[in-house]
């Protein structure tokens, strides 16, 4: 697909380039923020699997520069609407002003190298490796010393986010397993550095047995919801798990030397009765009993304004639209060298006998 | 509901013995008879878990270990009566992590064999003995934090095993484990030998060679082959196990790409490297030819192909010691991905994402490449061949540039040339040939036509035409007495001469019977067919301009010539009609003409006679998976229609009945002199390349299908013909539409329609089943006319019409709804990805008429539905409904004057995209709408016409993931049985009670009747399927799954 047709097909691809984001996934975090107010009271954040760095960019612009994007734009828009309806009340309800936050600490970790971002500490490290924790704690607090402090951070963080995903193979079971392993890796690290009441946001594949994963996350967080930003395509299995109010069980001690690969749900929230509730919008919800204590379906929330661009729709390009180059070229794929070799041997579609091309 | 049958990716394969192969297809373990290609047994092994691997212990053929995810168990195969077997599943065990490989030892000092498993975190665990019940898995070596994509266990002795592990980050770890008995307890001592960065991408396949294979390469002890995301295959020498290496963790290095430099210290010697497939490579295997001693590597890729590489020593002092040469390539599967394979006795079985299990003979594969022979040195002065014609199954008559004729005997080790005639001046520099079994005709520039009779090996002149002969065409008219018809066309002559010849009689009698056919203007004859009907001789000629003309030789003009009766233009567009075959119809009044053309299609035309005049109507015309040069066709011994032609540089033969490629010959392309003689499982192909004669003889299919497959990518939509033929149309991401039947518990593909340029979005049948509609991207919406009961192809399909295109738009037609006004006139509502919809009238003529257009908001519309407003008293009731990615359904009105559709009300049901919509009528003009959302919810909405009111009962957690498919299986007396499916791979049966007497949705009662796992991932659609007995649902996604809905569920 050419750049221009991709612009039409994917509004967020175009917007990302226009607004200077390194990847369209920036909008996913912004839209998650609109719904969950993720950054309220947040100053210390760890961004896992951060490269190419669009989520760190969001953190930088909201927390360091104090820009009013994400939740804040939504509030501003709402405020403007309120003004229209009730102009008389506006006198004592000033919209909040943009304000950089104090003592912001953001650490971004990835295996891939990432272009630096102002005010953000980038670590090239493996999030599953025990040695990463002291590295991370030192990055958060330069005074930290592994000898004197416990592994549980002396100054824990407010929010851990992870947009990591493997290259999918197409074998669904395997892809779901590898993604869940990545989620466990992120969670294990989060368990080591998150403060009580802290938040955790990570990419999840909504596929087979995802309800088992939800039930396990529910053991360490008071609230677990699954969210789908509008900028994520309906046809994609991708969604985000938003866990708030970190509450590990009594006596829980996290470490990467002995990472968790599962948590056994202890209490069963099984209910056996159907319940009906009538919502404000007139829709009657029928809640079905969830009988298996090992499975739990997290509440689903679509996020992003309904008037926001639809990731599935085709869009007309504005008059005189000029297709921009991506802010950052995509990371070199592992088969880059293979492509180069092929080119040498006779062009991208070269006359080589390699592979099943003609077959 | 009961599970009936599924066709899903084959994710595990193992030979049980010579005759039986085990396959993991979703949750089912199946056993197939390799030779008969029949299913022997099927059993569900794990509850809710697909099978990912099967291993059969080499020395004992009674027990296999089967695993999937973290689950593992022993399976016994017990032979039962009539050559069938019974699969007996032992106790299910669970490891604490995902299992990547299981290795069974030979007999150990304990007596029985040991089975060890390696996990995705490189942990090693011991399975309990197969003979004991109640045993459990014993962890021996704990896992680490690295994540593996592949691993292999090879037992070196009864107490030692070697493990090769490939990580997601391109590292390989080679380590071993020695089992020791300490005070009656089994303990493991393990050591890492090599830890190294082997590839630039994730490692998907590793194999440790046997010592026999390694011995062949410079007397080594063992080799390691690896394959990766980086498209390369690499060979390593891991003979030396005395070396020790720190583990990945001990090295304290950063894993991940780009940190290569620091760990070459623990790498084994690199032996060879080759760029493999144009895709990721999933598996790698060693194989060696025990007779020649040659060593090979087989690789299996995402590109659904497998390549055979010969390992040869490099002579040079620089570079790696071995190189890998591609010596064979097979593409046994549709679409993408070979997920599984098994090797035994030089037979290779592969399992694909398309659900097929294919079987190839390894040795045939690699010798096939050397099947072509140039002319032998003894025949050096034969010259350049001009034309070939088969005179029997193994011999051709060949003419040369010098005008000589040779009989060429093909099958032997060396091609044998027998001179039939020394140089004939008229054939010098130019000759054409036509042949049938027993005789051949040859002519040249001087217009003299010769006949060669094979039984007497004689060549005699038969006709003098006086002009350069452009073409010769021959066909047998009757067998006893043998009568053949020969058509001769000449350069610059407006007539063609038709000769009836009885070769067994004397020449004189046959010569007299010549008919002159007047060739229409602009017509260059390229193909010919003859039929006799009610005493009339009928001739059909195909032209270079794509048209077909017909003649009745009883009709003559004043000059005693036969003018053409009618011409059927555009049978193959404006491209050459390469072959015509005639088959009788069911009555005397009809016949069927099959034609192939260089427009990449083959076609079937129905010919009906009115007053002896033929009327032609195309009832079938589709593109083939090769071409555009479709060059010919014929029937094999089983009466399957075969078509052949060229795909790039290959000559390809396709069996239409089995939808399988029969033969592929690397010959350099279409522009050469060639001839093909089909036989049962292949045929003989001869061609000229660089002035030499080449041959390829195929007596065996290169790949046999133990179980045929379906789409190579995920299915996006399905529709089942309502006319009782139960024809299933499926449209997939691979842009193909397949027409299949489900009979006797299996799917059979009849046709693959390749016309769309993008993945298929929606399919629908007309209410009588004679039209199929399909939509996709780039504003594609095609109308396919379906004709039944056509000889040899069963169902005929033509693309009769298509949605008008603006030419610039890449809009996807997300969905549409068709209403028939009469048999061939339709009203179509289509919804587009730019939030618009259009109402079309499609009359039987070609033109589509735009009735009205409407704009929704900004979100993508996903579904639409005509509302049947049969009653007239509700003038302003809505005409149609749409659903969209904003979770709303909207009702639309149509004002005819303004040609404008506008939505009159929107009703929110879901939080985001509505992915499925189904409905049924209720009493008093009410309607039940059921929607499935990306938000895991099912919405049950009552639409009452009075006041156009929508009231919804929402089941927020109906599934654990997006609800993508819905079907109503039964509706009666206020109760509806609904089946829903989701990408959480659950299929649920619901009973919905509806009491319209109650307010709002108070009268709607929902009960979950049952909940089952489907092996189909990425479920996208579902349809009610009438089974031979009773009713079922067909669930489609990555595969197809049939469930029977028993009467007991519907109470």
TrEMBL record, chain A:
UniProt keywords, alphabetically: Cytoplasm, Methyltransferase, S-adenosyl-L-methionine, Transferase, tRNA processing
Catalytic residues, per the record, are: 203
Query: Which enzyme class, named as a word?
Result: transferase
Q: Which residues bind S-adenosyl-L-methionine?
A: 53, 55, 110, 126, 163
Query: For this protein, what reaction is catalysed?
Result: cytidine(32)/guanosine(34) in tRNA + 2 S-adenosyl-L-methionine = 2'-O-methylcytidine(32)/2'-O-methylguanosine(34) in tRNA + 2 S-adenosyl-L-homocysteine + 2 H(+)
Where can this protein be found?
Cytoplasm
- Indicate the segments forming the Ribosomal RNA methyltransferase FtsJ domain, all copies: 21-246
Is Transferase included in the keywords of this UniProt record? yes
Known EC number(s)?
2.1.1.205
> Please, which domain of life does this record's source organism belong to?
Eukaryota
Question: What family does the entry list?
Answer: Belongs to the class I-like SAM-binding methyltransferase superfamily. RNA methyltransferase RlmE family. TRM7 subfamily.
**What protein name applies here?**
Putative tRNA (cytidine(32)/guanosine(34)-2'-O)-methyltransferase
Q: What is the lineage of its organism?
A: Eukaryota, Fungi, Dikarya, Ascomycota, Pezizomycotina
TrEMBL record, chain B:
User: According to the record, where are the WD repeats?
Assistant: 196-239, 753-786
Segment forming the signal sequence: none
Q: Does the keyword Lipid metabolism apply?
A: no
Which SMART domains did the record assign? WD40 (SM00320)
The answer on whether this UniProt entry bears the keyword Acetylation reads no
Q: Which InterPro entries did the record assign?
A: Quinoprotein_ADH-like_sf, tRNA_Anticodon_Mtase-Reg, WD40/YVTN_repeat-like_dom_sf, WD40_repeat_CS, WD40_repeat_dom_sf, WD40_rpt
Q: Which domain of life is it from?
A: Eukaryota
Instruction: Tell me which UniProt keywords the record has, alphabetically.
Output: Cytoplasm, Repeat, tRNA processing, WD repeat
Q: Which Pfam families match?
A: WD40 (PF00400)
Compartments (UniProt record): Cytoplasm
Say which family it is in: Belongs to the WD repeat WDR6 family.
Its name, as the record gives it, is WD40 repeat-like protein
- Source species of the chain: Zasmidium cellare (Wine cellar mold)
